[in-house]
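Summary for the lay section of the report: proteins are chains of building blocks that fold into shapes. Here we show the chain for Pseudouridylate synthase PUS7L and then a coded description of the shape we predicted for it.
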Amino acid sequence: HCYLRMEEDTDFRIRFSSLCFITDHVGFHGTIKSSPSDFVVIEIDEQGQLVNKASDEPIYKVNKILPGPNNLAKKTNLDPQNLSFEERSNQEVNTLAGCSGDDQNYEPGSEKEDTIEDGTSKSEEENIDVLGSLLDEKTNELLNQFACDVKEKWNSKTELIGPSSEFSLGRILDKNQRAILHSAIRQKFPFLITVGKNSEIVVKPNLEYKELCHLVSEEEAFDFFKYLDAKKENSKFTFKPNINKDHRKAVHHFINKKFGNLVETKSFPEPNYSADNPKVVITVRFREKAHKHRKRSLHECQERKVIYTAFTLRKENLEMFEAVGFLAIKLGVIPSDFSYAGLKDKKAITYQAMVVRKVTPERLKNIEKEIEKKRMNVFNIRSVDDSLRLGQLKGNHFDIVIRNLKNQINDSANLRERILEAVENVKNKGFVNYYGPQRFGMGRKVHTDQIGLALLKSEMVKAVQLFLTPEELDDPVNRAKKYFLQTEDAKGTLSLMPEFKVRERALLESLHRFGVTEEGCIQAWFSFPHSMRIFYVHAYSSKIWNEAVSYRLATYGSRVVEGDLVCLDEDIDDEHLPSSKVSVISSRVHLVTEEEESANTYAIHQIQVPVIKVNLKYDQIFFRRLFHVSFIFPFIAQVVLPVLGYNIQYPKNKLGKWYQEVLSRDGLQTCRFKIPTLKLNVPGCYRKILKHPCNLSYQLIEDHDIDVTKEGSHIDEATLSLLISFDLDASCYATVCLREIMKHDF
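The coded shape description reads as follows.
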């Protein structure tokens, strides 16, 4: 049931797409989104509650798992679902100079370690005991081996490059345990540094330690970095006496250059200084003012961090990014201060959970009247502990009215029967899980996937030009865009761009500041929050997935064949999962064998077999082998296709070759799906080919149009409308489900 059709975009590109259906009913015609009230979307939170319901309790409450010693540094034992949005979105790096973000709130030495005057530990064994208690034996051994390898390579003058130059301890969810590990490792191995990446601790060589060893003895460098890490207030560190003034000058310069915001250095003559013994020592002290100011800043940062206000946003016929931009202006914050679980339709009435930081509940309540003018309302306003992250929802509930119902062309069957047949068919068999058209923007000349492709190819200027490409419309927004492409005058374009176009104005302000150059365009993209930057890259991956599933169904139909990927994991469709979670899911993705294809071990449709569903909680591999031997019934496993990224595997059949050909076609054959300049990493995910609507209900209503006159007589003419309600999992599209029901493109 796969139909190939060719579409022509208004930019005269020919775009080929095969649009497949998995069901075989006839369908019907109708109109959706006649008005925003005909398409109501209500987010379903992780507890399965509709977010438009009044609630005194936080809808989203992030539960911090405190792993025991045996769980530390074992990635598969940690649940990334319990991480906050901020912990997932950015790579954070601990430095000696200060701290920000999540792991950066760790302050080396703040654990009140006992230190002596030169900053060394009171007991060397304490750090060994700490590492032994928090790390499993294998990880501890590997850490010690890594430290030995670093020293050996330095001694042999070997360059520390490649993957062997860092060592991961895995994800540690408890911040306090991460802080203790950071400190213990730095105290035991001052020639190493620890880096925080989304709650993962990575250990690397301390190149500044190596550089200092060229100026002083290794013993002094070792003790100096232990002193720095301990940060004991009012303590000092003294280097060995030195008679060489130029050498002392070099040491002063190194320390002030690297750590000048943290410490100060002074030279003092030795107590027995004389003309015959002109030895001078360099003493290092923490800067008192900087140290105290830093402590206050950290305290203030923590004070601010607790100000997270959750609310439910209701918007009508308004783009989500436009709504966020308007709220940001009214609250005096920036768009990236808002977090949300998912994007919502524009031409609809939508309800979604949001969290804004640095804004109190009282302050948000004060703007309620103002934002009503923009067709927005906020309610369920309350304080919470953390931000949201994309994908932190169970799904969405839809209440939809389809108007002007009629039969397909040349179909004379009873319309009511056609509608009943269509709805029940999709309810039982599901629909092809395409990404919906709103994923790619509603523009005719440029789609969001084209911008994403340019970003993946690091064509930053082209990406900006695509973003600011006008449509063939004569309105202020498109006139401003047209002016920019003609002149590249960011300042002039800014004066033309309407105030409500928040994203465009933010980009233009950055271009005006940094210039329309490669570097300037990189800075301009940083005017968008991380979630918006990654959105464009995901749009490209989504386009390729749509093409892939069409090719898969056109090539193999509904058969499950050798080389297909099947997955038993229920939670695989979240493209915002961190790489570690994707790795765990990848381990549960199974390549169908020739024997399994012959035995029909798997089915593309969900088979409702109660016995199997009960037993799924046991060893899935065992049951797969059991079915392989007994061939009793098809196993419940979803056929999946990879969404592009650096951490996925491809099918081992014609489809795998197709993926490689498409990547070559688009110039991405060497793409690593990481854009360091924009701090974007795309691990990828797996997406089920088919999905089913849940809790589906429907009702046919007759709309009577009075005053229809025919040959002078007054008659009543009734038209049918369909009221349909259902739930879909996160990242599924109601328009795609309706397309399968109606066999009709919108």
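Put simply, here is one thing we learned. The first helix runs from residue 85 to 89.
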